[in-house]
Design a protein that fits this description.
Blueprint (H helix, E strand, L loop, with lengths): L1 E5 L20 E9 L8 E5 L6 H4 L5 E2 L3 E3 L1 H13 L8 H8 L2 E2 L1
């Protein structure tokens, strides 16, 4: 798990009940990084330990947009390791993936 902080809680999809939404400034932990199927261009998505998006309440949204989060420079190495462990991302240039996600270093 990698600790990140929410830096963008805007544009909540109507399909996600408020009790599952994350607030700006909230610290959470990423457990998985994947391609975000609901976004154009293969923007990365992630699962959060503290705020899972259960399909029975949030479908079709089941991943968070990675660019909603900021990460400390100290935790960036851990995030790269987590991405490398994500099996569907094994053939991806990790540095490009992070740059494309618009993930902010804080």
């Amino acid at each position: 798990m990698v600790e990140v902080i929410c830096i963008d809680d805007n544009n909540k999809p109507e399909g996600i009940p408020g009790r599952f939404w994350i607030k700006e400034g909230e610290k959470v932990h990423i457990t998985l990084v994947t391609f975000h199927p609901m976004q154009d261009g293969g923007i990365q998505g992630c699962e959060l330990y503290e705020k899972p998006l259960p399909l029975e309440h949030c479908a079709p949204y089941n991943f968070w947009k990675l660019s909603r989060f900021g990460i400390t420079a100290d935790n960036l190495k851990e995030l790269i390791e987590l991405i490398e462990q994500s099996t569907e991302l094994n053939e991806v240039d990790i540095r490009s993936l992070i740059e494309e996600s618009e993930l902010q270093t804080i």
